[in-house]
Sequence to fold (307 residues):
Amino acid sequence: MTRVLVTGGSGFVGRHTSQALVQIGCDVVVASRAPDAIAGAQVVAVDLLNDDAPQQLIHRILPDVLVHLAWETETGVFWSAESNTEWLKASLALHDAFLKNGGARSVFAGSCAEYDWSALGEGGIAHETNTPCVPATPYAVAKCAFFSSVHERIADGASCAWGRIFMLYGEREHPQRFVSSIIRNLLSQREAPMSSGRQIRDFLDTRDAGRAFAELAVGSMTGAINIGSGTGLSLKNVAEMIGNKLNRSDLLNIGAMDDRSGEPESLVADVTRLRDELGFHAAYDLLDGLDHAIDYWSRQNPDGVTE
Fold:
């Protein structure tokens, strides 16, 4: 049985990755700072930013496959957090230890923020090889630096895949992210402020993203692969979909917040590799995914704990 170590394995994406790997039949070990139980998986508490923690984790688990999803992800913090440098160092140490201990296959979480947003294709399409990577934030700089190391390992014969994540939504999403904030405000009968909503983004249910990483883990694709839906929708359109589902469109305050400077008007994944090489197709369309997210948030108390 293939032993798979999933760092950040009980998080927003990692939980679904871990569950999908268990269903595939892997021996799954979930590593996290504050891990939750994942049915069928072993759980290990670890802080990879502690000295020698990456090496000790690898020596303890001896995985065949590494799925490294852990990083700084706190909304409003991660773009410029100093910890991005620490995560880069820890990630390099983790991958080095994995390869030195006979690891066969590694998969990592990248980001659409790695791309040069001023050089996107028509319609804001980002392509893994045609769109250059010019990071504009400390987060993206660290991710790009790590990808460069992974790319060098691939050139040397290692089997490594790099999943560039676009705009995810769904259960356990940070409450201040776009979809969750709109849902939570409307469920609480509060006004939901947002930007102009003109921005076009690529939305994917986190359950699908987790499954995509699981399929990469047991596959053989190498290099960068966009993890998205391949379809662009405006933020305004998505907010109105939520408003219609909850019959509270009157609470949407579109234009109450400034648009973020420096962000592209449109950012959409080219999913040719994901679809044609991996054979991956999303199981949830946006309408179904929003229903699931609304159901999840309707079962939370004000502190964000499932009732």
